[in-house]
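Input chain follows. Return structure tokens only.
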Amino acid sequence: MKNILRTAALCMGLISLVACEKDEEKATLNADAKIEASLSTNNVVLTQGTASQTALTVSWETKNLNINLAPKYTVNFVRKDGKKEKSISVEKSPLAITGKELNDYLISDLEITAGTTTEVTVAVRLVLSDQRNFSSEHKLKVTPFLDEIKPSDWGIAGDGANGWDPDKGLDIKMWKGDDGALVAYATLKTGSIKFRKDNKWDLNYGGSNGKLVSGGTNIAVLAGTYKITFNEKALTYSIEKYSWGIVGSGANGWDENKDLDIKLSYNGAFNQWEAKNVSLKDGEIKIRLNNQWGTNFGAVSTDDKPVAALSGKLKDGGNNIKVSAGTYNISFSFDVKTKEGTYKIEKL
């Protein structure tokens, strides 16, 4: 019994000692303890050409802690409105971030529109093992870029496209699409087309009724703007009417089926639709598919009123976008599955 009491007393003493040590550690934290961070620059314009290089270095130093508690650091990028944040756990200073990494943080995590300059907060946060924390913040101007996409080796040739000559490199480019298929968005002439690889006839496909064979017959087409898909593995193709256009009182009116929408062209390198040097009037616009209202994109807004912002988020059935008279470059991109995207209207 004496041994049990002696052991219990010893345990209580150890617990008291540990508790006292923790209290002592807490007590010795200086009142002026802090973390000081610095950025290698306060303005970053990102480009694809420098994507592999270091774009930003975040450094920091803790001062006057005078305490032996395990620190944990995070570097945080916070959007200007505070609604989106990217947090990176790090062990020690400094943190070097490449252009591609920073670009991904801005576009994917903070949902900042590529090509627009905005301000974000860079915060270095120190959290001690007892949950006390410190922070040092700096403002950073950033301009993210769109990641350029390379076309596939396949293209569309024919008198219904840009000709049959393999030496001129004029085949309509095809891009990676959905479900393993390649896709092109193109305006064709009445004539015929085939699919060929590397602008050569060594490997080409033709056929009819959506089925392809190697070296098959030419595919007849009528003049129009189309979405063209090609699946080499399944040996299938499709050609369907497909065009995006700008509609509204700021363009050529709201009527459908009159072919008055201002046409947008597909830029596969950035997976976006564009119209350059567009003349608009005072009014409102939206973007719709095939000159009809079945699928149309407008701005995302908290109310049901027209939006004045010349860049931002889009959604199917969104609100009208206000514009003033002038000449513009207009671009938009969207996700087929979510039916959400972004737009940019740049006055020239």
